[in-house]
Design goal:
Largest interface: A-B, 18 and 22 residues
CATH topology of the largest domain in chain A: Rossmann fold
Order of helices and strands of chain B: EHEEHEHEEHH
Largest sheet of chain A: 6 strands, mixed
Oligomer: heterodimer
CATH architecture of the largest domain in chain A: 3-Layer(aba) Sandwich
CATH superfamily of the largest domain in chain A: ANL, N-terminal domain
Helix content of chain B: 25-40%
CATH class of the largest domain in chain A: Alpha Beta
Structural class of chain A: alpha/beta
Strand content of chain B: 35-45%
CATH superfamily of the largest domain in chain B: VC0802-like
Number of helices of chain B: 5
Distance between the termini of chain A: 35 Å
Strand content of chain A: 15-25%
Number of strands of chain A: 19
Helix content of chain A: 25-40%
CATH architecture of the largest domain in chain B: 2-Layer Sandwich
């Protein structure tokens, strides 16, 4: 049985909000000062906005600083936005880009430690610790999920099974043989795993030691949580983070009532469409300032997720602000099996294939437990061939080109010219039929 | 090319009502379909047909937004008796001509016609003629 700690760092996690805000202000001032001196990107941005570091005197003054966007990371590929010398970087992670250019995130030793600490606190809040066996079924490598969870799980003294993605039957076998008590993966993959286990004649609820799952990297609903918890006999916790912020960073605690965001390392804002702050408890777009990151600090970063901020202390005793379940996106990004997909990526791929027209439609569906993306494209009159094999080759070619950029297998459907909706705005291009 | 006829090919999604729409538009244009086939590949299909006025059919369908093409195919008169198809296929095979696809129909005059899409029309016409197999031209198609 695992030796359960209530807190990883009891003093910090239960510090009064005012004390946390003092830490935030102190760190914000030094961050702004530091990036103004060490990052040409931020200095230029601040100068354009007419703001000097000494103007930041209160936490509210953060609103004087300019926003940063994913586009900035892309435009400054690979490392032009970094604020630390490259010889201080101990690791890189890279995520697929929206128009071909990927996003590179660098970590100093301190950044890796901070990331690890954040997850150590989070995993402890889920009731995990020494004696637990955590199966990390997020992708390892350039994707942040695998290594992030791995370090956090090792930090709390748990035994890690660095499983990675795929090979589901083997996952289930090792889950049984090594007595995994927790698994970290996408919710859809866990449901898929449950199906595969059934086919293998294994009842996860009765025949494994699994007691909890850390699920994220894609949106999931409370209904899905209920289904996972009852059918698999486990507790399912939401995990949140993005590669730009480091990777997965925050989870729910055992109260399962919002995700705790460590205020000593991250400053949150929730804003409306005009960029103005919304009151606590009201829906808006999440904006994050990293207070501790060294290699790639982000100031007022527009993550693009829609959520609600809750500054009330949690019943678990933690005082750090909580973001409630992510309620959607401020942009048109889709998350398919843990991979971020922008319609603009699909568009730019299709534009390189002369046989298809400029009109396309993206349909996201949940088939069984896994999300599937169908790309419907119009065959141009010029490209039409009376031979079926030519058309099937065209479908395959489009699928192959898309996979190269998206890192995701999609289903391609050729449709008749003129049948897809025309110029009715971006939203018409994407049909999300998933019930999340 | 002399010896070939024009086939109309259309891209069509595999869903209810698509064929009806195509047939309706040809019917309104008073174009008669002589031979017809659908090849399907999952979500879509290719409709191929031989009509009495291919150029007008092509313009009509293109005007309605269909992805349509005209393809040169060979129409061969086939004896409607056992071995009729064998003779033709064997002739082409021995002549090194590959058949991409084919479809057949029987006319009112007890004539069977075989429509052939091959990889080399000129070669196909030559070997068929050498084997004394009758090719059918556009006029014959109109008058069937």
């Amino acid at each position: 049985m695992a030796a359960m700690l209530d807190f990883w760092n009891s003093r910090v996690e239960r510090a009064p909000l005012e004390e946390l805000q003092e830490i935030q202000l102190r760190k914000l001032k030094s961050l702004v000062d530091n990036v103004y001196r060490n990052s040409s990107f931020y200095r230029k941005r601040f100068d354009e906005a007419g703001v000097k570091p000494e103007k930041i005197r209160s936490l509210d003054d953060v609103a004087k600083l300019p926003f940063t966007y994913k586009k900035d990371l892309r435009d400054n590929y690979p490392t032009k936005m970094f604020s630390a010398p490259l010889n201080q970087v101990v690791r890189y992670h890279v995520s697929s880009g929206t128009t071909g250019k990927p996003t590179v995130v660098g970590y100093t030793r301190g950044d890796v430690d901070c990331w690890t600490t954040s997850l150590a606190r989070a995993l402890t809040s889920c009731g995990l610790g020494r004696g637990d066996v955590i199966q990390v079924s997020y992708g390892y490598g350039l994707f942040t999920g695998g290594l992030g969870l791995h370090y956090g799980a090792e930090e709390i003294g748990a035994s890690v099974i660095p499983m990675g993605v795929g090979n589901t039957e083997r996952q289930i076998e090792l889950m049984q043989d090594l007595h995994a008590t927790a698994i970290a993966c996408t919710p859809s993959y866990l449901l898929h795993m449950n199906e595969v286990a059934k086919k293998m004649g294994i009842n996860i609820k009765a025949q494994t030691d699994l007691k909890c799952a850390i699920l994220g990297a894609e949106p999931w609903s409370l209904e899905t949580r209920k289904r996972i918890e009852t059918t698999m006999g486990i507790k399912a916790f939401d995990i949140y983070g993005t590669s730009e912020l480091s990777g997965p960073l925050f989870t729910e605690c055992q109260e399962q009532d919002g995700i705790h965001v460590w205020a000593d390392h991250f400053l949150l804002e929730v804003i409306d469409k005009n960029g103005d702050p919304v009151p606590d408890g009201k829906k808006g777009e999440l904006v994050v300032t990293t207070l501790s990151k060294e290699a790639l600090p982000l100031i007022r970063y527009r993550i693009g997720d829609i959520t609600v901020l809750n500054n009330e202390p949690c019943d678990c005793g933690r005082t750090h602000p909580r973001i409630m379940r992510i309620m959607g996106r401020a942009d048109d990004m889709l998350i398919i099996r843990g991979i971020n997909v922008f319609p603009s990526q699909i568009e730019s791929v299709l534009m390189t294939i002369p046989e298809v027209g400029e009109h396309f439609q993206i349909i996201a569906e949940r088939k069984g437990e896994l999300d599937e993306l169908t790309i419907r494209v119009e065959v141009t009159r010029a490209a039409f061939s009376d031979k079926l094999a030519d058309l099937m080759r065209l479908e395959q070619k489009i699928g192959y080109e898309l996979q190269k950029v998206l890192q995701l297998a999609t289903k391609v459907e050729l449709v008749e010219t003129g049948t897809l909706p025309r110029s009715q705005g971006k939203s018409q291009k994407v049909i999300d039929r998933r019930k999340i | 090319m002399k010896g070939t006829i024009k086939q109309i090919s259309l891209f069509a999604e595999n869903k209810p009502g698509r064929l009806a729409k195509i047939a309706e538009s040809l019917s309104k244009a008073k174009i008669n379909i002589r031979a017809f086939t659908i090849a399907e590949a999952g979500d879509f299909g290719v409709i191929r047909m031989v009509v009495d006025d291919p150029d007008r059919a092509y313009k009509n369908l293109q005007g309605q937004g269909f992805a349509v093409s005209e393809t040169e195919v060979i129409a061969v008169q086939m004896e409607d008796v056992p071995g009729g198809l064998f003779k033709i296929a064997n002739t082409l095979g021995k002549g090194g001509v590959n058949i991409d696809y084919a479809y057949a129909f029987v006319t009112r005059s007890d004539l069977a016609l075989l429509i052939l899409r091959v990889d080399d029309n000129a070669k196909a016409i030559k070997v068929l003629k050498d084997a004394k197999i009758n090719l059918v031209d556009v006029d014959a198609i109109v008058n069937i």
